Structure formats: structure tokens, C-alpha cells
Amino acid sequence: MTLEVLGITVLGVFLFGYIIVASIDFGAGFFNAFSTVTGKEHILTKVIQRYLSPVWEVTNVFLVFFFVGIVGFFPKTAYYYGSTLLVPASIAIILLAIRGAYYAFTIYGGLKHKRYTILYGLTGLFIPASLSIVLTISEGGFVTMMDSGPVLDYWTLFTSPLSWSIVVLSLTSVLYISAVFLTWYAQKAKDRAAVSLLRKYALVWAVPAIITAAGIIVEMKGHNPEHYQRLVDVWWLFALSVIFFAGTVFLLWKRLAYGFAFWLLIGQFTSAFLAYGISHYPYLMYPYLTIYDSFTNKAMATALVIAFIAGLCLLLPSLYLLLRLFLFNKAYVQGDRNDHA
Amino acid sequence: MGNEDALFFSRVLTELTLSFHIIYATIGVGIPLMIMIAQWVGIKKNDEHYILLARRWTRGFVITVAVGVVTGTAIGLQLSLLWPNFMELAGNTIALPLFMETFAFFFEAIFLGIYLYTWDRFENQKKHLLLLIPVALGASFSAVFITIVNAFMNAPRGFDLVNGQLVNVSPLLAMFNPAMPSKVAHVVVTAYMTSAFVLASIGAYRLLKGSNHVYHKKALFLTMKLGLIFSIATVVLGDFSGKYLAKYQPEKLAAAEWHLETEKGAPLILYGVLADGEVKYALKIPFGLSILSHSNPNAEVIGLDQFNEADTPPLYIHYMFDLMVTIGMWMVLLSFVYVVGTWRQWQFIFSKWFRWLMVLGGPLSIIAIEAGWWLDEVGRQPWVLRGIMRTKDAATASGHVDTMLWLFAGLYLILGIGSVFILWRMFRRNPVEQELADRAGEKAGVAK
Fold first, then answer.
1. What residues are paired with B383 via a beta bridge?
2. Burial level of A222, CB count in 10 A (0-12/13-18/19+)?
3. For residue B310, what are the CA distances in angstroms to B381, B386, B390?
4. From residue A141, how far is each of A82, A86, A157, B400 by CA, in Å?
5. At B166, phi and psi to the nearest 5?
6. Membrane-crossing residues (chain A) (predicted)?
7. CB distance B106–A109 less than 8 Å?
8. Does a structural domain hold residue A239?
9. Contact criterion met (CB < 8 Å) for A325 and B90
10. CB-based contact A184:A259 (threshold 8 Å)
């Protein structure tokens, strides 16, 4: 494995981690707001807040890891993406700030109001939408090279069917991932009413999620034939993904093994993510930037990989402890314990 | 938007974000240590008050951390968005500590979540205290790693530029640059100092506003003692920073001290105004600058006359230096008088006016932090990476930077007002007297 591939693999781990944990977080916030509006908050709010409160900062760190790491491993991305993403990334920061403020002021600070809960829930839809633009831009055709540097063509971006399909995919998968996870979590919390409602959400969002995902492959054919061809080459990974998907839906339908259903979902997204990553190789931004011409020097890459391994040795046990205390601790999950400062 | 405009607004937006973030970042680095000390004292003395102090500080702390996470994410992304050329270079040379900072923060965030939600889970308080150690370590190491990056911007090392190509990159050499030891120590210790004085001003304020509870007196005495220790350390480390500057960044020192002509036995100039190239109305400490720079009253100190004007920073940083040093010295004096006065039972330290001075200490320390960072950042101009890349060559050419500036200004306004309001409300609604009574009631209930 070359250092370039190792670097992009490290970043892929963080990006995938972020996609999963952030989807759970975003979707949970949205369901929480939705239940407040539809008068079902007594069913959902408790389960959702119990899961979210101790882990939200951890979720945010995955994102920071990704963008710090990509500038480290592939410094040229700072130039290409930094110059073009000013507006979309700033909007994403502001939306993330609203979420942070919600935790600071409402969860920790006790400032309760429906308005904030709804605003918070809506950011859960807008953030994935704004962040997904990065994936769209990476497909090429939206950035032109001027004398002053790379410039993003907003008009093309906003009128492109591809960019809207990716936005819709990000929304449906956020809601689907989140609902499946929370069904399992509610099951552990022995909260029957919440299980049945969340299971319904999971089933409702399953179909749109898979349809939009398939739709994007079709869009790609027109937008970026080279990438499309490479996507087709890894058809077997997509097939695997669909099998996992079918498994999750089957288990949810039959009300069986929600934990296993969630792990199947992880399998579905892992294989789809791998297929996407492999077919995108070696481009970071079509056609300007590949992982080879943007790569950092060997000394830095080696240092970063060592730091990554050392860091993981520190973090994995800590993450395990966090999950054990909150996610897999019966007394906590079932609401017998609070112990908040 | 022209490139000139983009540069101007990029600078203003970065200044705004950093000035806002540094308040939360400084508190975020220092307060975990204070909580740790309070909880430890509580366990040692078996005194419920100190444990409650740790608990109440934690509640406030998580709010400032949440805001700090938000502003930290903002600056992290803005570096690439506003200074893409600089970040491309930085990614090649100094990415390692940036990456490690994220790990340190990750570590902190995980254990903060655990610490926060396990207050009554352990029979043994010591076990709970153990969970705080990674929080405090993570917080301090975040500061260490980020300051290393800043030190690198002042004294870039660990690479060579040959015909515009980066060669011989050594990430460790870049990290351990000459600016690193004095800067890291200064930043970490002033964060502890500021946090201690901010917490002290809360205690002093409660005592002023009618509560005469011994809880607040204990809190005030503990934090003022800690503040004294860390402010003395700050003065000593400040001296090291002066010596570093004299050796490696003489133009920054000369601009900060208004040292116009190279001379031996240079005086230290405080305050004053600059008119037609002459310093007027200033307080001059004979031989002061030579001692600060080289520990020798007769040593020669390089003045601004040795530099091209295009390579020196704006001279207003002198006032930032004055502000920082004056507040630092004042806080040493104030905390010293308070601590000695408490031992010797001087009556005036219990007076209203003296308590007001301690209330002011917190905000003043934060102003000193701001002045220090402005001195550091503006004092490095016109360079973003000293001697290698000028600030004007680092900025984005993107449009809409001005719109983003207004957007973020609005965001910080809301976050700033919101966090102060929430903290105020939280402690208003649950004063310590009430919480102590509630806890006593709970315990009695359990005993029955």
C-alpha cells in the first residue's frame, strides 16, 4: 500500500465515522423536533436526549479530524477546496454553531422552548445538505480555474440535477440511519412506544434512501462518465450493499434483532462507501486534483500515520469506555440513572 | 470583490473569530485544572463545600466548552477558507501538531462527557476525580499543540525552500522551533491564571451581593491563591519571552517596546505617545529593555533603525504590550495583598472596594489575554509565516468574504450574549445556599 492510499484510507475512516455518528445525531434531532410539533414528544424526547447528550462533542470531533487530516495528508486540498468552499462551508459552520448553542443553552443551560428544539431539528437536515455539496463539487464540472485561482460556479451547482440528488440522498440516509439506530436504542431502553414509532420511521425512510442512492448512479452516467464506468466496475460491492439493506428491512419488518439490523445497516453503508471511494480513486476533485499530485511529503505523511496509530491506541479504549457507560449500560439507558453534574 | 478587499475582510474575520474564540479557549484550558484542584481539596479535607464548588464549576464549564467547540470548529475551517495558500504550505510543514491537537481534544471531549454524567455513580469520589485527569490533560495539550503551530508561524524551522520547492521537511524540527518553549509555557500558564481570576471574580461578586456564605469565602481564597501562583509564574515566563524575541524576532520586540535606535543600556519604555518619530510622555525604566532582552544592563538591543519599514509590524502593538504587562503586574499585586491579608487578618481586604477590585480581576485578565494575542499576531506582520510568506500572499481570492464577516459577527454576538445570559440565569436560579439545603435534605431523607 502506498503512503497516498494509506493517507486517504485514514481520512476515509474518519469520514465514514462522521457520516454514521453524525447521521444518528442529525436524524435524532430532527425526530425530536418532529415529535414536538406532532405532539408525540412524550414518546421520543427522553430516549433521544439520553443518547445524544454525552456524545455530541465526540461527533463533532470526527468532522474536525477529517478536515484537519485532509489538509495534513493532501495540503493542496486547502488551496482547491478552501478557495471554493467559503460560502457553503461557512453556512455549515453557522448551522453547526446552532447545534452547539442548543446543547450549551438548552440541554446544559436549561433554556427550554419549542422554537429552539425546532430550529435545532431543522439544522439536522440543513447541515448534511450543505456538507454534501463537497461531494458534488468533487465530481468535477463546478469549479473553473481562473487567474486568481479556482472559482466555484454557483449557478451550475444549483441547477445541476446531480447536486440535488446528492442533497436528497444525504437527507434520506440521515433519517434512515438514525431511525434504525434509535429503534435499537429504544429497544435497549425497553421503551415500547418509542420502539414502535421509530421502527415505523425506519421503514418509511428505507425505500427513499435506496431509491435516491440508485438514482445518483444513474445521474453520474451523464455527469461524469469516467466515474460512472468505475462505479459499474465495482458492481459487486453495490450488490453486497443491497443484500445488507434487504436484511435490515427484513429484520425491522419482522420485529427481530434490532441490534443485528443496525450492524447490517453499517455493512450496507460500508460497502457502498467503499464502492464510492474505490471508484473515485485517484481523484480528490475531478479533473484537477488526485491523491498523488496533492500529496504531502514523505516525512510528514509518516509522522501523521504514526500519530494516527498512537492516537487510536489512546482513543479506542476511551471510546469503548464511553459506549459502555452510556450506550451499553442498562441502568443509564433505561433511565434509572442520571448523575448529571 | 478585488483581492485587496478579500485580504482586508479575511483579516478582519480572522481577527474577530480568534478574539472571540480565545476567551472560551482560555477558560477551557484552565478551568478543568481548577475543578480538579477543588475536588481534590474537597476529598482531602472531607469538605463538601469544595466538592460542590467543583460540581458547580463543571456545570458552567460545559456551557463554555460547547461554545468553544463551535468557535474552534469555525476557526479550524476558516484557516483553510480564508488563507488557502498559507494552509497549503502549513499542511506540508506543521500539520503534525494540528492533527495531534484534534486527538487531544477528542480525548478531552470523551472524558468530559463521562465526567459530566457520572457525578453520583461512584461511591468513592476519588474514582470520579480520576476521570477528570484526561479532561485536564486533553485541554492543556490542545493548548500546547495549537501554540506550537503559532510558534512555528513566528519562527519557521524544519524545512528548506529550494527554488520554491519544499525539501528536507522535518515535522519534529518544525514543532520544536525556538519560539515553542517560551510561547507554550506562557500560553498555558496564563490560561490557568486567567481561569483562576475569572472564578475568583464570581466568588467576590457573590460576597458583594449579600451572600456571606463560607462557601464563597473558601472559593475566593482558593482561586486567589492559585491566581497568585500562576501570575507569578506568568511574570517569570514573560521574561523568557522577552529574551526569545530579542534573539529571534528583534523587529517584533523593537516595535512592541518602541525601541527606535539600536543602543547599549536601553531603557524600557512604557506608555507614552509617538510624535514625529519621537517618544513623548513615556515612563522610562533605565536599562530595563537591556535587562529584559539579555539579562545585562549594558547589552546592546537592536532597534527599528536596523529594519526595512516594509518588514516591521505596526507600532500600535506597544499599547498591547503595555496593557498586557500592566494587568499582569496588577494581578500579582492584588492577589498577593489578598492572600497575605487573609493570613494576617487585614480588615480592608474584606471591604467592599477591595472586593470590587477582585470582581474586576476576571475581566481584566481576559483583556490581558486579548492584548497578548493581538501583540503576538499583529506583531508578526507583515508575515503570516515569518520571513517565508507575507499575509497578503496567503489570503483567498474568493468573493463574499465581507458577507461572511457579517454573518459570523452576528453569530458571535448571539453566542456571546447567550452564554453570559445562560450562565447568569443558571446560578441565579440555583444559589449555593439552596443547593446545600437541598442536598442536606436529600441526605436526611436517605438516612431515614
1. B390
2. exposed
3. 10, 13, 11
4. 17, 18, 9, 21
5. -80, 125
6. 6-34, 55-74, 80-105, 117-142, 162-186, 198-218, 234-253, 260-279, 299-323
7. no
8. no
9. no
10. yes
A202 CA: distance to closest CA in chain B (Å): 28
Q: What is the DSSP string of B339-399?
A: HHHHHHT-GGGGSHHHHHHHHHHHHHHHHHHHHHHHHHHHHTTTEEETTTEEHHHHS---S
Residue with cell 545585562: B296
Contacts of B100 in chain A (CB under 8 A): 307, 311
- For B167, the 3-state DSSP assignment is strand
Phi, psi of A236 (to 5 degrees): -65, -30
Rounded to an integer, what distance in angstroms lies between the CA atom of residue B170 and that of residue B157?
A: 8
**CA nearest B302: which of B255, B233, B364?**
B255
β strands within B221-360, DSSP E: 263-264, 268-270, 273-275, 278-280, 283-285, 300-301
* Strand A149-152 relative to strand A143-146, pairing: antiparallel
Residue A139 Cα to chain centre, angstroms: 18
Q: Distance between CA atoms of B246 and B252, rounded to whole angstroms?
A: 8
A277 lies in some domain: no
Interface of A with B in 97-136 (CB under 8 A): 97, 100-101, 103-105, 108-111
Which residue, among B386, B381, B376, B387, has the nearest Cα to B7 in the 3D structure? Answer: B381
The answer to whether residue A118 is domain-embedded is: yes
Burial B286-323 (b: 16+ CB within 10 A, else e): ebbbbbbbbeeeebebbbbeeeeeeebbeeebbbbbbb
* Interchain contact, A339 vs B119, CB within 8 Å: yes
Is B62's CB within 8 Å of A94's CB?
no
**CA-to-CA distance for B225 and B221, rounded, in angstroms?**
6
Instruction: State the pTM of this model.
Output: 0.91
Q: What cell does A252 get? A: 425491522
Domain residues for the domain of A44 are: 3-198+282-333
The DSSP letter of residue B57 is H
Here the cell at position B433 is 445556599
Closest-CA residue to A269 (of A299, A295, A245): A245
* No. of helices (H) and no. of strands (E), chain A: 14, 4
Q: Does A331 touch chain B (CB under 8 A)?
A: no
B57, B102, B125: best to mutate for the A interface, most A CBs within 10 A: B102
N-term to C-term CA, chain A: 47
- Note whether A338 contacts B66, CB cutoff 8 Å: no
Q: For each of chain B's 448 residues, which pLDDT tens digit applies?
A: 567 888 999 999 999 999 999 999 999 999 999 999 999 999 999 888 999 999 999 989 988 988 998 899 999 999 989 999 999 999 899 999 999 999 998 888 888 888 888 887 777 888 889 989 999 999 999 999 999 999 999 999 999 888 878 888 899 999 999 999 999 999 999 999 999 999 999 999 988 887 788 889 899 999 999 999 999 999 999 889 989 999 999 999 999 889 888 988 889 888 888 888 788 888 888 988 999 899 888 989 998 889 888 899 999 999 999 999 999 999 999 999 999 999 988 888 888 899 999 999 999 999 999 999 999 999 998 999 998 999 998 988 888 899 999 999 999 999 999 999 988 888 888 888 888 888 777 767 655 4
Q: How many residues does chain A have?
A: 341
In a domain, A212, yes or no: no
Number of domains chain A contains: 1
Q: Cell match 448523575: residue?
A: A339
Residue type, B95: A
Q: What's the distance, CA A49 to chain centroid?
A: 19
